[in-house]
Amino acid sequence: MSELRQNIITRDWVIIATERAKRPDKFAVPKRELKYLIPHQSDCPFCVGNEEDGTVETFRLCDRNGWKVRAIMNKFPALSPTQGGVRISDGIHRAMSGIGYHEVIVEHPRHDLTTALLAIEDIANILLVYRQRYAEIRKDPRIETIIIFKNHGESAGTSLEHPHSQIAATPVVPYQFRTRIDEAIRYFDDTGECLVCRTLEDELTAQQRIIVESQYFVAFIPYAALSPFHIWIFPRRHSSSFDDINDQEIADLATTLKTVLAKIYYGLNNPDYNYTIRSVPTGELGTKYFHWYIAIVPRVSRQAGFELGSGMYINTSLPEESAKFLRSVVIPSINPNS
Questions:
Q1: Which of 109, 183, 224, 278 has the fewest Cβ atoms within 10 angstroms?
Q2: Which listed residue (102, 162, 164, 230) is catalytic?
Q3: Average pLDDT, the chain
Q4: CB neighbours of 83 closer than 8 A, spacing ≥ 6?
Q5: How confident is the model at residue 32 (pLDDT cuts 50, 70, 90)?
Q6: What are the counts of helices (DSSP H) followed by strands (DSSP E) for the chain?
Q7: H-run or E-run covering 182
Q8: How big, in percent rounded to 5, are the helix, strand and coil portions of the chain?
Q9: 164 among known catalytic residues
Q10: CATH superfamily ID and name for 3-328
């Protein structure tokens, strides 16, 4: 028998299709023909030596050997900080100029690495740059929402192989953000508790869907995961805005994020995936009703007509079995790209 579960944070109802459920290992993508990448590619705009190739750099993290992570303006931005914040209303039609920020985070000098195979200190460097750019962009009073995200693989929306992620900042709060915040406020008004904190408490008590725990973070598959192997990483400390993360937490998150991505890499044959850092709107800092977290969505299934027509999700994996599978994945001690 199938089961409907409600994701209390998103308010989505999810059909857990137990009769159609596949064993977790069956979600592994088919082994692809190996494509050997070289550490440096002369025509890659993100590789060492091409830094001045028409890009505007906003931040650079360096050591004595050169840059480790770079933040640059997207050459084809969806939004631009140079536009004015003009709103236009014409009857029921509303518009405004495309003010905002759209930056690319070049995660590593090497062209041939993926985030799951980076050293922990390299991932910590990426998180440090995320924090720096988030805090800097938030100073612009025109910005309402900052989204940090990574697309890995063609089906996840990426076109360049060099490891990178992106930051987009908008002058409005997207509807999905606003509805989740509204639900969190409603829950806080009813119970006096943060909805995210309560979810984390329940998951730690159940222990059925936990993938990995660390001193400051917990990675798990939600009770009503919207798709197979949909993963959340929650901070243990209540904090509403990502840029409140401290250095100790960054080091710990780097280990947690690498562990989760490596388990996906080895357990599911390096599937395409997206991750995003969800944080409160810039004008709602220091709230008691919500705190930031990371969502990771492996692209191992597709939405079809039912999802588009109903707005509901069908998940053909059991969250408990998927979490158990990922816990069992052994990460090799030797990096194949080192």
A1: 183
A2: 164
A3: 90
A4: 97, 98, 99
A5: low
A6: 6, 15
A7: helix 175-191
A8: 30, 25, 45
A9: yes
A10: HIT-like (3.30.428.10)
